[in-house]
Amino acid sequence: MEEKKIPYVEEEYDVVVVGAGHAGCEAALACARLGLETIIFTVSVDSIAMMPCNPNIGGSSKGHLVREIDALGGEMGKNIDKTFIQSKMLNKSKGPAVHSLRAQADKMNYSMEMRKTLQNTDHLTIRQAEVSEIITETTALENGKEIQKMTGVKTFSGAVYHCKAVVLCTGTYLCARCLTGEMITYTGPNGLQAANHLTDSLKEHGIEMFRFKTGTPARIDKRSVDFSKMQEQKGDERVVPFSFTTNPEDVQIDQVSCWLTYTNEKTHEIIRNNLDRSPIYAGIIEGTGPRYCPSIEDKVVKFADKDRHQIFIEPEGINTNEMYVGGMSSSLPEDVQHEMYRTLPGLEHVKIVRNAYAIEYDCINPNQLYATLEFKNIKGLFSGGQFNGSSGYEEAACQGLVAGINAAMSILGKEPLILDRSEAYIGVLIDDLVTKENHEPYRMMTSRAEYRLLLRQDNADLRLSKKGYEIGLISQERYDWICQKEVLIQNEIERVAGVKIGANKEVQALLESYGSIPLNTGTTLTELIRRPELDYEKLAPIDKERPELPYDVVEQVNINIKYDGYIVRQIKQVEHYKKLENKKIAEDFDYDEVPSLRIEARQKLKLYRPLSIGQASRISGVSPADISVLLVYMEQMKYHKGNIK
Amino acid sequence: MGTDTIAAIATAMTSSGIGIVRISGDEAVSITDRIFEMKNQKKLEDMPTHTIHYGHIHDGDEVIDEVMVVLMRGPKSYTREDTVEIDCHGGVYVMKRILETVIKYGARPAEPGEFTKRAFLNGRIDLSQAESVIDVINSKNEFALKSSLSQLSGSVSEKIKEIRGNVLHEIAFIESALDDPEHISLDGYPEKLSGIVSDVIKKIDKLLANSDNGKMLKEGISTVIVGKPNAGKSSLLNFLVGEEKAIVTDIAGTTRDVLEEQINLNGILLNIIDTAGIRDTEDVVEKIGVERAKKYLNNADLVIYVVDTSTALDENDHEIMELLKDRHAIVLLNKSDLSPVTTVEDIRKHLDKKMISISAKEQTGMDDLEETIKEMFFSGEVTFNDEVYITNIRHKTSLQEALRSLHLVLQSIADDMPEDFYSIDLMNAYEELGNIIGESVEDDLVNEIFSKFCMGK
Questions:
Q1: Which among A214, A440, A447, A627 is the top mutation candidate for probing chain B, defined by the most B β-carbons within 10 Å of its own β-carbon?
Q2: In terms of Cα–Cα distance, which of A176, A180, A170 is closest to A202?
Q3: Is the pLDDT of residue B451 over 80?
Q4: pTM of the full predicted structure?
Q5: Whole-angstrom distance, CA of residue A96 vs CA of residue A554
Q6: Predicted ipTM?
Q7: How many CB atoms lie within 10 A of CB A522?
Q8: How far apart are CA B86 and CA B58, in angstroms?
Q9: Where do the domains of chain A lie, and which CATH numbers do they carry?
Q10: A162 has a pLDDT exceeding 90
Q11: A296 touches chain B (CB under 8 A)
């Protein structure tokens, strides 16, 4: 084939990261911090860590992801702590498992701070260029089979970058097109240049592509909004930081408000009258959109019985007048947008700064990945974020982190990081992506986590920081504190269990003040903490020997005592789950050798190539009987090998 | 694999001889101690391995049977785990009762082929047998699946689907509120949920009550009566059903075109499969078609073929006889009071089965029929699959588990626990109910959330 541009070798790196969004930044930082020479490509240096949709980080279950990223040594939590302008702990009235932090970000600041962090990280190079090809070579494996191996990438300008591993984090840029009614532009988000060449190269390498879509609402001019017709939504009085390393005193800032308004019958009527001009309803959009983040036209059609929908008007930053119209993403034409936004109380005279639009992009079928986020068929090729069929900044960042870590681990010859469903929301997310059929952009939800009582945002550091330390992204100091924290928690739980409380006057008075039934006989402090109306801190006056403990230790003590019954039950379930999870299946396991596997199961297993029996059991089409057959066969193989030795 | 304790009936479920209930796993001995009173008042726990003990199995105050208990500690047992075998008096009721008691006190019903699987995984069985182990697992599973689904009556399965739908809807509501607290509020919801859960509990209680009187799964020898029109099938059926020994359990509320009559023939349960037209038109072959007749025959443990000896064998008879060749069948030569056109010899040319001359009208030969069925059963020639019993017990266990989880929800509401705790137990109930109708959870919840509740930015 004739080359139009003369390729030349530019440079050599350990890791190439393609894309500098939330996934790419985490991947590049992880690799560089582990000492690997890393280069990160972006179509625009000005759009590093850009937030092209909602101006916030966290939220239900997504807040958990940010905490987990932080516990593993990622950057997102630290970055939002530096740049938030409002913060709220959601679900505070509910159980600790579903408490979730959400912060409004100053978008420009968020992007700028992340860019600074990238710029100031050793071993990390930022390069503005479009990667258009991946380069592989074919190598023979021990078992005689051949596999493709990453050797580099080529940019559209023809430069070749040799490397040992590539992490693809292309977000919504691949062959992207944006739709606003009849108007179609072939750009990435926010009018940025799309990446139109890489898809072909990936397809040539045998990678199966999907086409997904998502959307975003309009941005409006703050000066054209009448806030007196809306309800003010303030942040929490006391802000809790995302990062375990942020000093809580540093985040007690003056916060900016969001505003609540509603759609009404008039809004819905305009939408219904113009449905034929919506690219989705007119059949112009091919991509599959997310059901959890429906456009306003979807909401009006699918939930026709609802006479109004909540709309949140959120600031995009301190240095901008733009505001985000949360709840009203749309791909209706510009004139309809004007008309419909103006039906909302407070938006009667609204000026649109940027139109709402739907965006379509190429991504992969994530079943081509191992749980390490490495491609099964191309050694050294990793990927994360929306490219893997997910949606959301937090979902992207955590995959970027895992993909980056595992790219590094593969180069360093160390054990990969695979989090399972009992260890982290990140584990649930990746397992879902690589094991289940994925037909829409995947969003994290607390209901997807079977063991969510154990996977709380408050204990993410206890769950994951040791792993982060082993990988090399968590400092010795942080590690030592985690170990100490564990001991403090355990000791205090034991001490409290031994504290006898008599039915004396002081105790009865305290109980009465909280509307708690008085004691008939003596009990322990533990028993009292378990009462719904009481907790560890409320009982301080009658706990004379109580030691001085940091707040995060107290929090753990309280939760562990209060919800002990449920927590113990989930721990038991996890033990059961782990039995299958710990039965590993080799990457090159030959399912054709297993007698009596049903055809459907055999096909699915060959396609998904699960890394454990547990993962195999979650593939749809693989029955418990197939799993038994597999177990028996594997046991036979093990025994057989033992005999040969 | 697991070290949890499993139990099953290890012998055939016939009414003869001795039955064995086998228990294997870490808690096999301690569970047995909870239900077994040894003659000498000692505990099995304290006994040496490979010993036999005499005593009684009891469930609380109720004494169930006089038994011998064999204790085999691992690894010197079939599964290499601690194993207890309870040798009881054979008899379907007693074996079932003992197995249920063992499960009530902590074991779980074994999966099909699970003892063998454990034996293998624990290195007990020779490697060369691996493939046969796999085959056992496969075939048993296939059967279990078939029996659990096909034998679950339509109304029960509908009922469970309905209950599951109710439960799922509530979980989805709670979860959508947790995922999108600013759009969906749970104010005042706990009281409402409490009412809904109480209703669901009532429905499950009813199902449980039915599972005890055999309405869940039909236990017994499934028997099909075939013959061409006017051969005398309905007289036979009326005779079998209509006498004092018959218990008729028409299942109301089903829309199926097949009804079953359950008959207790001196302790042997027969499920006589009756088709919609059989008693009205006697037209089974013609009316329901050979194909459907075939289907019933294939699922039958026993076929009773009624021949009208006053007419000549025709095409229909030949077709039926062809179908009966490799089935357990009895041929009834009816209308023996009339002068026969068709004789025993005529039939034997085509079909080699037990033959009995009867007159359904005069009710002669019926004793012979009864005797023959009994003989076939006790000699083991005709059996029915034990999986049905086991499946029934599994279903019952699942219902009880679901019930337990739902009571925990009520408890959590009463205790003023946060709402996210409700959905944990609701989910357990949903999963247990799914086990009965063979449906797993998969993406049900996420789909329900998105389709029923409007959320999102």
A1: A447
A2: A170
A3: no
A4: 0.83
A5: 14
A6: 0.89
A7: 12
A8: 12
A9: 8-213+361-471 (3.50.50.60), 219-358 (2.40.30.260), 486-572 (1.10.10.1800), 583-644 (1.10.150.570)
A10: yes
A11: no
